[in-house]
Amino acid sequence: MSTLGERIKHLRELKGLSQKDLSEKTQLTIVQLSRYETNHRKPDPDALSRLVTVLETSADYLIGLNSEPLKSSARELNAKFSFYMSHPVYGVFLKEFLNAPDQLKNETKHFFEFITHNYEGLELKQDQTQEDIRKNPIRWGTH
């Protein structure tokens, strides 16, 4: 994807948005978006700013100065989410939690709040937990 239009279209499609959806979110017309995507026009700075915000990217990516479509904070969040979802312990818990009924989610949330509020100084450190998992796989059920 070398052109601005191709990058806009690619991100729009990645987000599952139609041109109509994106036009509503950016307050641009469908005609404007179509012209941007087909490289018949370039967005002005205000339109570019709105596209960057809605598509959760950077202007540098859209204009071709950067090859990473996601903002660094979104990339970091994606990496953390992927780590937890693929983890043999956390992933199972998160998948079960996400599929649980709302009442169970609320009870789990209250239980977690109870634990963290009643144990002052309790810090859940990802690096320590990962190291513990490597050293004690049987304890964590990852053997």
UniProtKB/TrEMBL annotation:
Cited Pfam families: HTH_3
Domain of life: Bacteria
Record keywords, A-Z: DNA-binding
Key word DNA-binding present: yes
CDD domains for the chain: HTH_XRE
PANTHER family: HTH-TYPE TRANSCRIPTIONAL REGULATOR, METHYLPHOSPHONATE SYNTHASE
Protein name: Transcriptional regulator with XRE-family HTH domain
Source organism per UniProt: Paenibacillus amylolyticus
